[in-house]
Amino acid sequence: MNGRKIMGAAVTVLVAFVLGLSVISGTPVATEEQPPAGGCTVTIDATGAGASGTQKSAELNANQMAAARTVVGVGTGMRIAARGIAIALGTAMQESTMNPAAVNGRSIGLFQQQGTLYADVDRTDAAAASRAFYTQLVSRVPTYADPAAGTFAAIAQAVQRSGAGAGKYAVWQRWATALAAQLLGEPQGPSPAAETSPVTCEDGGGSGQLPIRQAGLDVILPKQAGIDGSGSDVIVRFPSEAAAIAAAAALSHLGTPYAWGGGGPTGPTQGIRDGGVADRHGDYKKTGFDCSGLTEYAYAQAGIAIGGDSRTQYASGGTRHPFREALPGDLLFSGNTPATIHHVAIYLGRIYGRDYVVEAPQSGSVVKVSMTPIVGQYRTDVVRPWD
């Protein structure tokens, strides 16, 4: 691997392809928001044969797709057959419209799980809820992969034991089966018996969080970062794996709307009113991040709690260091004094002679990578959460 050290910089930029990179993906879900740039929405044509009765279809926004990918990823990790994964997707769509944060009385999460059976499960965590669903699936219907074991709806009902009955799950059979095939990368045959239907991927939407390639200390910046690597991958090396994980998590949300008061440890959330600029931009109707919501989320993915607002993050989010010692992953703060801090961003280091941050900058904008004039914009010290 060839590398080039930027003289006087806090980061080594490598312009080479790294093998064995993991892909960062996420689980937060919020509905009623258009997907950010960076992928595609999925619309499934649920017409035609292959499932009995009326069938429903749906277009998933970016956050719903993030949850759907988690359902599929957990199922794959547990070696669940494609039919079981499809049943899980259909059940989650019926129960919560693919929203892990959904709460209806005692029913919580993607699958609206309730009761002592799920008492030790974090039901608002999409991965944990999915594991619990699949555990019950293989326990209650061990032969679920065989159509002879029961219909799609009957097996979903066997897991959920819903008082409303199996019928409500039946309407999602074709949609969920097609989506499972799409996300699993399986061919969708023309046979009605295959319970499949066309999946259309339309440009301009988002298919959930951007896939960010990370291996150990190295993170490849996606093209959405807007940093020209002259045709080669731009790789930032971080001083710790926690910093790399945090930066990759933040980068995975490039294009997600700014929402004042939005975001937290589990991902983007609906913004709140501020009585001013944010209200004029309709932030209270958007699902996204403000500056500190993004940084809190990013470091939570590395298992580090830094607090939920920029002043708290400055005061107790990690150790403080002079800016001349700044490293990629450090938190940078705007404000002349600790009492006037009003913005926070994650430093990506000096790349090709210029300083960059990933940030949620302001109402009307989106999560982005910004080239920043460090002198005069940020305080003269930085916070290092992983110390």
TrEMBL record:
This is C40 family peptidase. Belongs to the peptidase C40 family. Pfam families: NLPC_P60. InterPro entries: NLP_P60_dom (IPR000064), Papain-like_cys_pep_sf (IPR038765), PG_Endopeptidase_C40 (IPR051794). Keywords: Hydrolase, Protease, Thiol protease. The keyword Mitochondrion does not apply. Gene3D superfamilies: endopeptidase domain like (from Nostoc punctiforme). Residues 240-387 form the NlpC/P60 domain. Residues 186-207 are annotated as: Disordered.
